Amino acid sequence: MSAQPVAATTPGIESFRGLHRGKRVFILASGPSLRDHDLSPLRRRLTIGLNRSPLIWPETHYHCTMDERLFAEHPDVLRAARYLFTLEDRPFGIPLRLLGAEGFSLDLCRGIYSGYTVAYFALQVAVYMGFSEVIYLGLDLCHRDGQTHFFGNDFRSRDHESTEFPRMARMMLRGVEAATGLGVRVLNASPLSTLDGIERITYADAIAL
Length: 209
Description:
This protein has helices at residues 69-73, 75-79, 118-128, 165-181, 203-208, and strands spanning 24-28, 47-50, 62-64, 84-87, 94-96, 98-100, 112-113, 133-137, 185-188, 199-200. By secondary structure, the chain is of the alpha/beta class. The chain has one domain (26-208). An eight-stranded parallel sheet has the order 5-4-3-2-1-8-9-10, covered by helices on one side. The protein has a two-stranded parallel ribbon with strand order 6-7. The longest helix has 17 residues, at 165-181. It starts with 23 loop residues before the first strand and ends with a helix.
C-alpha cells in the first residue's frame, strides 16, 4: 500500500502537547468485554478509540492505530476519526515516527514506541496530551468463548494468548510504571482482564467519577 501525503489541514502532533492537562480520558481497546458495557455515558467524556473500536462506538474524540492492514479493511471507519494518530508511511492520519518496540516516549515530535500493542501506543499519546487519569475499557488480553475481540473472532489472533499477549502485558506494565512516575493514574475497567499490576475499577465506578 503506497503512502499518501498528509493533508495540509491535518495538524501536527505538536498541536496536541498538553492540550488536555489534568483531565481524564477513556481508552477503548478491542477485547471481548468491550461489548458488555453501555457506552452511551462516554458521550460526555473524552475518549480515545483503538483499531476497530469505532465498529461499536464511533464517537471517540481521538483514534489510534498502527496496523497497516486496517487502512485497507476499514478505510471509511478510520477516515471518519476526528483525529487519527498512526505511524509514518500510513495512507493518512497524523504520522508518528516509530522509534522501536520497547521504550516510553515523552516527546512524540521525536517519535513513539509500539510496545507491541496499540494500547501502549495510545498511553504515550494520552500522556503527551497531558491527561492525568487514563481508564482502559476492553483491555482484556484474553479470549472469551472463542471470541478474540468484541466483534467476534479474528483468525489472525487465535494464538495471541500464548504468543502476543504475554509481551503486550509486560510492556503495558512498563508503560503504566512510566506514566505513574509522571503523576498519571492508569486504571483498568476491563472485567475479563488478566493484566495484574494495573489498578482495577468497575465501569460503573469509572463513569461515576
